[in-house]
């Protein structure tokens, strides 16, 4: 098993370990760890206040959006708001309060992929919103943040699996559809190309 599996690590640009990492006094590779107890981190972004957020594909019925805190343990594989694919139960987060619970859980999974927190001018009404690509949900999911909390605000049906989400320099939102017939889509305000 890889020593950093299920963890978010934090390094300086030159590969050295920051002195203020939560486990900086531990031997490598533990000193690189910022947070742990993650199942499958697939998207990571900072909001306008510098707060780090990540989403991960959970087990069956347990996709998550997490607010990442220094040294936080999010509990996987001890807890999850989903179950194993073979049907075995995993205790929910509320059974073990020593672990940080997800900010948002999708029990009807979206299979998250790609993640931005929008800061462009093209869609001024969405500034500060998160956008997550949905593989199994075949959607673009918009999330709104309020300090330490978040919630799904709306879901746009895309008809195909969305693998990646990016913000262009002009503020357009770019989506990459998954699969052999995948397409690159540019979302712009009505009347703008």
Please provide a brief summary of the model.
The protein is mostly beta strands. 0% of the residues lie in helices and 36% in strands.
Helices and strands in order:
Blueprint: E1 7-9, E2 33-36, E3 41-46, E4 52-56, E5 63-67, E6 104-106, E7 112-117, E8 130-134, E9 139-146, E10 149-157, E11 162-167, E12 173-177, E13 184-187
Antiparallel strand pairs: 1-2, 3-4, 4-5, 5-6, 7-8, 8-9, 9-10, 11-12, 12-13
Can you offer a commentary on this structure?
Helix content is 0%, strand content 36%. It is an all-beta fold. The protein has one domain (37-187): TolB, C-terminal domain (Neuraminidase, 6 Propeller), CATH 2.120.10. The strands form 4 sheets. Strands 3-4-5-6 form a 4-stranded antiparallel beta sheet, with no helix packed on it. The chain has a 4-stranded antiparallel beta sheet with strand order 7-8-9-10, with no helix packed on it.
How many domains in all? 1
**CATH homologous superfamily label:** TolB, C-terminal domain
Span from first to last CA? Answer: 48 Å
Largest sheet, in brief, is:
4 strands, antiparallel
Radius of gyration: 18 Å
- The coarse silhouette is globular
Helix coverage percent of residues? under 10%
Number of beta-strand segments: 13
- The helix count comes to 0
Question: From N to C, what is the helix and strand string?
Answer: EEEEEEEEEEEEE
Content-based structural category:
mainly beta
| Beta-strand residue percentage | 35-45%
Which CATH class applies here?
Mainly Beta
Overall average residue pLDDT: 95
In CATH, the topology is named Neuraminidase
Low-pLDDT residue intervals, each spanning 5 or more residues: none
Read across the widest sheet, the strand sequence of neighbours is 3-4-5-6
């Amino acid at each position: 098993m890889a020593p950093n599996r299920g963890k978010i690590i934090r390094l300086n640009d030159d590969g050295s370990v920051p002195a203020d990492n939560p486990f900086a006094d531990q031997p490598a590779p533990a000193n690189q760890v910022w947070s742990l107890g993650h199942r499958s981190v697939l998207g990571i972004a900072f909001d306008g206040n510098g707060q780090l957020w990540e989403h991960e594909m959970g087990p069956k019925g347990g996709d998550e959006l997490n607010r990442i805190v220094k040294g936080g343990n999010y509990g996987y594989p001890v807890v999850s708001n989903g179950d194993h694919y073979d049907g075995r139960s995993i205790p929910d987060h509320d059974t073990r309060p020593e672990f940080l619970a997800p900010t948002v859980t999708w029990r009807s999974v979206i299979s998250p992929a790609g993640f931005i927190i929008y800061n462009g001018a093209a869609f001024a009404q969405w500034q500060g919103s998160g956008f997550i690509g949905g593989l199994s949900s075949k959607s673009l999911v918009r999330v709104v943040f309020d300090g330490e909390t978040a919630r799904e605000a709306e879901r746009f049906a895309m008809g195909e699996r969305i693998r990646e989400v990016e913000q262009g320099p002009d503020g357009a939102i770019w989506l990459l559809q998954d699969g052999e017939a995948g397409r690159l889509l540019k979302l712009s305000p009505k009347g703008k190309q």
